[in-house]
Write a sequence for this structure.
């Protein structure tokens, strides 16, 4: 399973419309690598993990040395001192923050729930404009410095990609159509929640942006996506305008990007935001728990659609809080608010 933080429609726009020929070439190279990674996507569910009893992360950061070979040279193992390489040390810290979030919020032991070693490779490729989970580890490009900055920068990028691993080991949602958009949305949800816990933010204090700080100076935009206001994250001559819909009236029917998984994820993203905002407080405690227990509960079909997932979250909220509870009503109303009926 290989899932990338920068969607192909952004890279395709750069490859076509960027004024700098070198920038267009880099975008084409990134697209080619992204396509190759997708071709290698694992289709089978991973083996059930064996309990490890671990209570602390087991991290390893490697340096690809700007090559495209993984994992690269080990530069920092668990407990080792900082290296002085910002990308390496940030990747190490963000692995720890993600581990800490899942353990503290939901009692989960690493990505697989059984103490999986957490591996990241930095400095992948030459100014590679993406970051991805390849089914076994995190991989970060340095960015080109003109449109994208270092992909180890935003914590929610790491949280998003590692959550693809959580999904892989639990619901294993198909990466196409609405189930694929849910796969992307779940990663955005927990990527944002990981950042919120790290910053000590409540739902009303959070920015609900994915990849804030990833767009370089001069780019007209604030992030890759906005969960609060899908379709408003950027509007730039070289990137185009954020195409995410906020509700089902704008649902995009396309064969590209596995059926628009990075575009239509705006709909369930906003549903989660609406639920979290209505409930209030720390979003990971109630709304996040509903989404987490729905994802990991073992009852989701891998090809589930928006309606099925919405119904499942309402069922989870009902089990956790009661049929008439404010939390359950908030979840139900959130899906109605984006045009998804349970």
């Amino acid at each position: 399973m290989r899932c990338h933080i920068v969607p192909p429609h952004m890279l395709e726009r750069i490859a076509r419309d960027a004024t700098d020929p070198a920038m267009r070439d880099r975008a084409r190279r990134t697209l080619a690598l992204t396509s190759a990674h997708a071709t290698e996507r694992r289709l089978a569910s991973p083996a059930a993990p064996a309990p490890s009893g671990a209570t602390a992360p087991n991290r390893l950061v490697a340096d690809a040395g700007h090559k495209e070979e993984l994992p690269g040279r080990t530069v920092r193992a668990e407990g080792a001192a900082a290296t002085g390489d910002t990308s390496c040390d940030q990747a190490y810290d963000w692995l720890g923050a993600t581990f800490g979030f899942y353990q503290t919020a939901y009692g989960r032991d690493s990505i697989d729930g059984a103490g999986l070693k957490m591996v990241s490779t930095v400095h992948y490729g030459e100014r590679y404009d993406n970051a991805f989970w390849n089914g076994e580890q995190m991989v970060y490009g340095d960015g080109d410095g003109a449109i994208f900055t270092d992909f180890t920068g935003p914590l929610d990028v790491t949280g998003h990609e590692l959550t693809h691993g959580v999904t892989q080991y639990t619901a294993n949602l198909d990466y196409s159509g609405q189930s694929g958009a849910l796969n992307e949305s779940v990663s955005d949800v927990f990527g944002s929640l990981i950042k919120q816990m790290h910053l000590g933010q409540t739902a009303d204090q959070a920015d609900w942006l994915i990849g804030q700080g990833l767009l370089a100076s001069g780019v007209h935009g604030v992030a890759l996506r906005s969960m609060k206001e899908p379709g408003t994250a950027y509007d730039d001559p070289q990137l185009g305008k954020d195409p995410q819909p906020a509700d089902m009236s704008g649902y995009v029917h396309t064969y590209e990007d596995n059926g628009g998984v990075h575009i239509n994820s705006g709909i369930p993203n906003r549903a989660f935001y609406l639920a979290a905002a209505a409930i209030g407080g720390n979003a990971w405690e109630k709304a996040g728990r509903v989404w987490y227990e729905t994802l990991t509960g073992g009852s989701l079909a891998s090809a589930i659609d928006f309606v099925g997932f919405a119904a499942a979250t309402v069922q989870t909220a009902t089990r956790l809080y009661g049929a008439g509870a404010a939390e359950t009503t908030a979840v139900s109303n959130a899906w109605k608010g984006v045009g998804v009926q349970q």
In short: Residues 39-52 have pLDDT under 50 and may be disordered.
